[in-house]
Design brief:
Blueprint (H helix, E strand, L loop, with lengths): L12 H4 L5 E4 L15 E3 L12 H8 L3 E3 L3 H4 L1 E2 L13 H14 L2 H8 L6 E2 L7
Parallel strand pairs: 1-2, 1-3
Antiparallel strand pairs: 4-5
Helix pairs in contact: 4-5
Length: 131
C-alpha cells in the first residue's frame, strides 16, 4: 500500500527542484529508461490537450534543459494487431500515474505497464499478444 502526497502551488517546478532532479516524461523521448521514482521528480501531464502535438513536450523539456524519459512501452510491449492499425504511446495523466505508482510498488515494468496501458492503445505484453 503506497501513499502519495500531493501539493499544489503557483510556483514552477523549475523553481522548486534542482534541474538535475527533474525528469520530463514525454512519449517523444528516446530515453525509455525511467529512473527510480524516489531519486527523481517526474513532470507528468506537461501538456493537457485533446489533440496530440508531436514533439511539443520534448521541445519544451529541451528548452528548459531538462532530462527526458518515456515509459518503456517499446521495450516491454508489442503492437497488437487491430482493425484500425492504431498504436499510441501517448497516455492520459492518470494512466501514467498508474504505471509509475505500480512500478514503485513492484519494481516490475511488465506489471506496471499492464496496470496503466489499456489495450485500446494498441500495445499488449508479449504473453497476451496471441489472445
Amino acid at each position: 500500500f503506497c501513499v502519495f502526497k500531493m501539493d499544489t502551488t503557483p510556483e514552477s517546478y523549475l523553481d522548486l527542484f534542482p534541474l538535475e532532479a527533474i525528469v520530463y516524461l514525454t512519449p517523444d523521448s528516446e530515453n525509455g529508461k525511467c529512473h527510480s521514482p524516489q531519486d527523481k521528480v517526474y513532470v507528468l501531464g506537461g501538456l493537457v490537450d485533446e489533440s496530440i502535438h508531436k514533439q511539443l513536450t520534448l521541445r519544451r523539456a529541451r528548452q528548459q534543459c531538462l532530462q527526458t524519459a518515456r515509459l518503456p512501452i517499446r521495450e516491454y510491449m508489442v503492437k497488437a494487431p487491430n482493425s484500425r492499425n492504431y498504436h499510441s504511446e501517448t497516455l492520459a495523466i492518470n494512466q501514467v500515474f498508474d504505471v509509475l505508482s505500480t512500478y514503485y510498488e513492484t519494481r516490475n515494468w511488465p506489471a506496471a505497464l499492464r496496470a496503466g496501458v489499456s489495450s485500446g492503445k494498441g500495445y499488449v505484453l508479449p504473453d497476451t499478444a496471441e489472445q
